[in-house]
């Protein structure tokens, strides 16, 4: 193992890769929330229904979510290459990886949403029902505000998971820091690039976690 | 105002089925405070939750203000529920909303205008005495204050009925009394019909006009509180009242101690103004018997004064009988115990 030499690092490439990671994270994060939040709400509502047909639909949906969650992300990513091509027109680069990231993370986020909604005091929901609230009003005015700290914690965990997913997407030609780490560090034995990439990702995760914790604390009223 | 007809609620199915209410009938008048008392598991919680269909009865009808609720569609039921306020043992406030927003909550559900909401919430804050706490969150309030928010929230949509589900059971005695006074105030000010369930006779005695005793999923006794309280018929009712007015042990000891010569122990019940009159001493002066007080209570049921004395008369058997006859003639209720 030779000494490390950080002088030859192409900082411009490093900057571009960081930008690409942030971009992937932002897009996939937004779409994961757009997809996962309603899915989580639906899981929560259907999981409590007394209607036997809805119970069956819930079981099917729940199974689908579990399957998506149990397939290793690497395999899911490869399996979704055709889908990415159809949706984004490409299966590589920043844009090409977003469908896989979203489909990998949304079921995970949906479960976190379902769990936080279950934490909401049943009594408060009943009180709202007693006041004549419709299901929509209960979701918007009771469940989501009451579960806000839990939901924000869920978003934080999901974003952190997405950071590691974006890194893995380097394997199938995605962009960003993970791609850089794999191409230089793994394939070309340039440890320095790998180390810097990893350090940057650690910093990113750290910042995300801190911001998330702050928000959770700010919105906790108990 | 409220009619429950043949109300039945069964939880679960088959061999695991548990009957909470079995063919219960109840009628509650407009403007009264009606109490339902029962031990835990008697079905009282199910009963009150059936009135706004938080619990859907397995069979039977729920009539509120001339409308049969179980026949209503979803939207109509939501509309009707706005006219039925409810407060809870554990308050069930939105922890993420301020006192102001909690009270405004039912008004926002109904799409009330912002200025109207503001006016209404401010009125209610004054009514429940929380005008200085509008911007606090429930976690910053005491139990009594939380229940005041609960009351204000329940009143926000100007309901015709207020349901109180063990509303004071989580509160200490002083706070309980202040919430009960608030409920009585509201009842008088707005002629609001109040239905409350409790396991404490004290609550019934303090504010209720009529009471029903629930046991094993059915009503075993009901009537005016004074009537039920002073002359309980069913064993369960007697149990509740005994814990409030009499203590078995000390009474037995007093009876066993005996007296001189011919004696008779009686329970004398005074009701209304008679409670404060000197009837007893006037009667014994006439008949010449002596008496010892073994146990006694003088209190009020809502605003009606009452007294219950257990006394032992000593003297000529004839004179004792005359005393009892005379007391009854004076309008007191006399029951010979031994």
What features would you describe in this structure?
- The complex is a heterodimer of chains A (222) and B (338).
- Chain A has 222 residues and is mainly α.
- Helix content of chain A is 81%, strand content 0%.
- The longest helix of chain A has 37 residues.
- The N and C termini of chain A lie far apart (54 Å).
- Chain B is built from twelve helices and 14 strands.
- The model of chain B has no long low-confidence stretch (mean pLDDT 91).
- Helix content of chain B is 38%, strand content 29%.
- Chain B has 338 residues and is α/β, with parallel strands linked by helices.
- In chain B, a hairpin with a 6-residue loop joins strand 1 and strand 2.
- Chain B is elongated.
- Chains A and B meet through helix 6 and helix 7 of A and helix 2, strand 6 and helix 3 of B.
List keywords for this structure.
heterodimer, A: 222 residues, mainly alpha, 81% helix, elongated, B: 338 residues, alpha/beta, 4-stranded antiparallel sheet, 14 strands, 38% helix
Output the radius of gyration of chain B. Answer: 24 Å
Helix content of chain B: 25-40%
Estimate the helix proportion of chain A, in percent. over 70%
CA-atom Rg of chain A in angstroms? 20 Å
Give the uncertain stretches of chain A in residue-range form: none
**Largest inter-chain contact set:** A-B, 21 and 30 residues
Q: What order do the strands of the largest sheet of chain B run in, or round the barrel if closed?
A: 6-7-8-3-9-10
Q: How would you describe the oligomerization state of the chains in this entry?
A: heterodimer
Overall pLDDT confidence of chain A: 90
Question: What global shape of chain A is seen?
Answer: elongated
Largest sheet of chain B: 6 strands, mixed
Strand content of chain A: under 5%
Number of strands of chain B: 14
């Amino acid at each position: 193992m030779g000494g490390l030499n950080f002088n030859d690092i192409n900082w411009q490439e490093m900057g571009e890769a960081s930008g690409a990671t942030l971009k992937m994270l932002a897009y996939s994060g937004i779409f994961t929330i757009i997809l996962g939040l309603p899915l989580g709400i639906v899981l929560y509502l259907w999981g409590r229904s007394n209607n036997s047909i809805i119970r069956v639909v819930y079981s099917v949906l729940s199974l689908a979510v579990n399957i998506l969650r149990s397939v290793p992300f690497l395999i899911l990513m490869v399996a979704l290459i055709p889908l990415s091509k159809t949706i984004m027109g490409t299966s590589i680069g920043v844009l090409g990886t977003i469908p896989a990231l979203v489909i990998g993370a949304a079921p995970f986020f949906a479960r976190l949403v379902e769990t936080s909604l279950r934490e909401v005091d049943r009594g408060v929901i009943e009180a709202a029902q007693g006041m004549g609230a419709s299901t929509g009003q209960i979701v918007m005015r009771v469940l989501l505000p009451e579960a806000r700290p839990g939901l924000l914690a869920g978003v934080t965990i999901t974003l952190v998971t997405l950071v590691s997913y974006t890194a893995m997407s380097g394997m199938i030609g995605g962009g960003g820091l993970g791609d850089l780490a794999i191409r230089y560090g793994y394939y070309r034995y340039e440890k320095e690039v790998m180390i810097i990439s990893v350090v940057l990702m650690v910093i990113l995760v750290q910042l995300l976690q801190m911001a998330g914790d702050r928000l959770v604390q700010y919105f906790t009223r108990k | 105002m409220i009619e429950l007809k043949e109300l039945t609620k069964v939880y679960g199915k088959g061999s695991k089925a548990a009957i909470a209410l079995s063919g219960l009938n109840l009628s509650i008048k407009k403007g009264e405070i009606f109490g339902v008392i029962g031990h835990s598991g008697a079905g009282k919680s199910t009963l009150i939750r059936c009135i706004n269909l938080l619990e859907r009865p397995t069979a039977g009808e729920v009539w509120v203000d001339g409308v049969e609720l179980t026949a209503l569609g979803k939207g109509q039921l939501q509309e009707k529920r706005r006219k039925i306020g409810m407060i809870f043992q554990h308050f069930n406030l939105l922890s993420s909303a301020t006192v102001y927003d909690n009270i405004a909550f039912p008004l926002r559900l109904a799409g009330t205008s912002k200025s109207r909401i503001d006016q209404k919430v401010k009125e209610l804050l004054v009514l429940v005495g929380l005008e200085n706490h509008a911007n606090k969150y429930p976690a910053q309030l005491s139990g009594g204050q939380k229940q005041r928010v609960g009351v204000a929230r329940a009143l926000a949509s100007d309901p015709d009925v207020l349901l109180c589900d063990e509303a004071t059971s989580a509160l200490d005695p002083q706070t309980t009394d202040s919430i009960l006074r608030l409920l009585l105030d509201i009842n008088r000010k707005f002629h609001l019909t109040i239905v409350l369930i409790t396991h404490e006779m004290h609550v019934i005695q303090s504010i209720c006009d009529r009471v029903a005793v629930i046991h094993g999923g059915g009503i075993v006794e009901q009537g005016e509180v004074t009537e039920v309280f002073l002359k309980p018929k069913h064993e369960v009712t007697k149990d509740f009242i005994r814990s409030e007015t009499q203590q078995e042990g000390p009474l037995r000891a007093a009876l066993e101690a005996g007296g001189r010569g011919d004696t008779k122990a009686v329970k004398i019940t005074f009701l209304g103004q008679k409670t404060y009159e000197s009837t007893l001493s006037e009667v014994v002066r006439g008949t010449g018997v002596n008496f010892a007080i073994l146990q006694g209570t003088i209190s009020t049921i809502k605003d009606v004064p009452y007294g219950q004395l257990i006394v032992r008369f000593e003297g000529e058997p004839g004179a004792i009988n005359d005393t009892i006859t005379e007391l009854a003639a004076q309008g007191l209720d006399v029951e010979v115990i031994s």
